[in-house]
User: Fold these one by one.
Assistant:
Number 1:
Amino acid sequence: MDVPHTSNGLSINHEIWIEGVQIYSSHPENCRLQATIGAKVELFRAKPVKAVVEVSPGKDEIVDVLREISELIEVVEESERVIAVEKTLSLPSEMKNIRRVLLASITEPKLNCQLEDGQIFIAGETQFALVYQVDTDEEAPLLATAFWGQGEIEPITFGDYLEMPGVEEGMKARVYLNTNHLKVEQIDERTIKLFLDLKTRIKITQTKTLALVTDSALISPLDGPKPSMLFYLVQPGDTLWKIARRYNTTMESITQENQLTAESVVVGEKLLIPKKPWSPNKLI
């Protein structure tokens, strides 16, 4: 698969499945197999990001802080595991006895994941097909295909608990599953044993909401007399941050003085500018 703009150091998640198979035969001793294989590939690179979440002023200082609410997706855990499935299966009652197993295949499993503290439970089911030579007295070989997961026949099910330290209930899990090994052993004319290894890549993430600091300003005391009352008429393009910078005060001071319920201001609104900057712990 050609993927533009790639480079070394990328991690890969992939899923592969069979969308369809056709077999053509023009001679009793050979045939042509044509399969359509689907694939999904995700390329990614973990990139550390530094962000400022708090600004601490010095003694007798007031700092006005502009924040922006951001959602960050944190990768809590990422690992590969193998789920081993071993099943003893009996042929459906309407199928004829087995002389020799020829081919076995499964469809893409349907998964159900559940996160608990310190572990993840992965359960799933898949359809299973078995192509075999029928045990018959006829000279010409007779082939048959038995299916599990169609009609009234139950599919192949599996489930396993995997220990994952640091994982908590409520986080999100993405599971990539591929067949690593499939083997069938014949036990008798109506019973087989299925061995299936599923390579599982698990990615656990959680969404964090952070108030990131995008700007800050140190409020310095101004010398000289100040007006007893100062009003400002909000102009187009104004924000609380811009108004606070113009009058050497804090957004919190303006909000408290005017009993504002939000950080946004309305054009034409008249605001009373406080005489002294205010912060939760200090007052100049």
Number 2:
Amino acid sequence: MDEPKKHQVSLRGASAKEISRDALLERVSQERELRNYTRRATAAALFIQVQFFV
């Protein structure tokens, strides 16, 4: 009987063979959180600059 094919999820070169699915999802979540934080910080900095120069 054929074994079911495993879907590989990758993130910047880390294949599912090298990292567990839970660890990969945690890493994805952390990177998403960092991007969101960076986006908010950039927006805040721009807001402050605009308020300062008006």
Number 3:
Amino acid sequence: MATRSMSEHEASATSEGSSSLLASMREMMEEKRGDIIEIFKTIVAYVVKREDMGTLAPLENKITLFASVISNVEEAANDHEQRLASVQGSVDQLQGKVDFLSKKCEKEGRSGLNNIRILGIAEGARGPHPTEFVAGLLQNLLRLGAKYFVA
């Protein structure tokens, strides 16, 4: 049996075949690596989306509930604002009446200070013309003549 040694030509051919095979394998691995990365990204995105949906659903329900509550509060605030405006109008009107009546009472009080009360004469006996009544009364009591009569 003779051993045969590899010739340079055979070694070169084997080396080229190995390099070509190795390059082909590297290229195939890169393609598969890219495919695997894309599949992994898709799976991760799906899982994250599911978790987000599970987490977000209760939050969305709470947000909807809070939006409803806020809407009710806004309606109540608007209603109270309208009522307050109505009450403010009534208060302003009543304040005007109070001011008018206060001034009237003050005038009545001041004019009452100028009144003279004559004892023994009944209230209301003066008639529609109090000045003439008092002048006539004084003339009769003091027995004055007509020259002192004030009309």
